[in-house]
Design a protein that fits this description.
The chain is an all-beta fold and 112 residues long. The protein has no helices and 8 strands.
């Protein structure tokens, strides 16, 4: 099992498998969205699976090592290579005092 990978406000956590959900084959996947267009993107020459679980969590299933790039001209995070495997995508979010709290239990995913 691999170590978690941090890329700016994005963290990829290795998991054994992705839950059931909407599955799409892609060659690029924005894993960290930026209002200014400075996205964090997984980019590959071959297709990989992007899975969105019923609760909205995003997973990627990479068949081969895949580039993680920051689309920014300056002060960007270095390009990384994400090893093959299944990864849960976590995004750092800002605290919003006006947001409501969801008190329903969420599905937990076991990581090694």
């Amino acid at each position: 099992m691999h170590n978690p990978i941090r890329h700016g406000e994005v963290m990829l956590l290795p998991v054994r498998s992705a839950p059931a959900g909407t599955r799409e084959q892609v060659t690029t996947c924005i894993v960290g969205h930026s209002e200014s267009g400075h996205h964090h993107v997984l980019d590959s020459d071959r297709e990989f699976a992007k899975i969105v679980a019923a609760n909205g969590d995003v997973f990627v299933d990479l068949d081969e090592p895949t580039r993680l790039v920051h689309l920014k001209d300056h002060d960007r995070h270095r390009e990384l290579e994400v090893p093959a495997g299944v990864w849960r995508v976590l995004r750092k979010t800002e605290f919003d005092i006006g947001a409501t709290v969801d008190r329903n239990p969420r599905t937990r995913y076991v990581q090694d």
